[in-house]
Design brief:
The protein is an alpha+beta fold and about 200 residues long. The protein has 3 domains: about 30 residues, no CATH class; about 25 residues; about 100 residues, Cytochrome c-like domain (Cytochrome Bc1 Complex, Chain D, domain 2, Orthogonal Bundle). Helices cover about 40% and strands about 10% of the residues. Strands 1-2-3-4 form a 4-stranded antiparallel β-sheet, with no helix packed on it. Helix 3 crosses helix 5. The termini are far apart.
């Protein structure tokens, strides 16, 4: 045991390091060690980095946040403006019949719709779209509307924040080609007959 000017410092018998007074639990004594220099510098660097980060992103705004970067990349990839409702105006509700639009609609169908309506539109969780009856209406405008607003009570989500207006029109135009295709194992008709 050594005596300092005002306090007594105990030394560890094995290492000779200072022991902390009052830190004795189950005969285990805590050493009064300084933190490693690399740890202290790492801590200082994280504090400096946080100040630089806040200044760059919130004060002078030299870089966008990750959410904005994602939206920019999605818009550049032609996926529309994620998070913004699709704009589909009633004046432009004409069935698209060109092969490029129908092919794009079929591609969207394969990625988004086939899970519930199956590949040929014969219905699984969602209704059969190949027959001449419908739960939500038979017209092109009705098909566009159900894609935009969805049918949450029946398990169909609204696609207005995930598809652009053009994509909604393309997939709706593809759906209009399904009635009468007679795929195997169709689901029983649901809804009212189309006129």
């Amino acid at each position: 045991m050594e005596m300092n000017a005002h306090k007594t410092v105990e030394k560890d018998e094995l290492t000779g390091d200072n022991l902390l007074a009052g830190h004795d639990y189950d005969n285990i004594r805590e050493l009064d060690n300084n933190l490693p220099k690399w740890w202290v510098w790492l801590f200082i660097i994280t504090i400096v980095w946080s100040v630089v980060y806040i200044f760059a992103f919130d004060v002078i705004k030299v870089a966008p946040y990750q959410v904005q970067e994602w939206k920019n990349e999605m818009a550049a990839a032609g996926v529309g403006n994620p998070g913004q409702p699709a704009q589909v105006d009633a004046a432009s509700l004409l069935v698209l019949s060109d092969q490029a639009s129908l092919a794009a609609g079929k591609e969207i169908w394969q990625k988004q719709c086939k899970v519930c309506h199956l590949d040929g539109g014969q219905g699984l969780v969602g209704p059969n779209l190949t027959d001449t009856v419908s739960i939500h209406g038979c017209s092109y405008a009705d098909v566009v509307n159900i894609i935009v607003v969805g049918a949450p009570e029946k398990g169909m989500i609204s696609w207005k924040t995930q598809l652009t207006g053009d994509q909604i029109k393309q997939v709706a135009s593809f759906v209009m080609t399904l009635p009468g295709t007679n795929p195997p194992n169709p689901k029983a008709p649901q809804g009212e007959p189309c006129k």
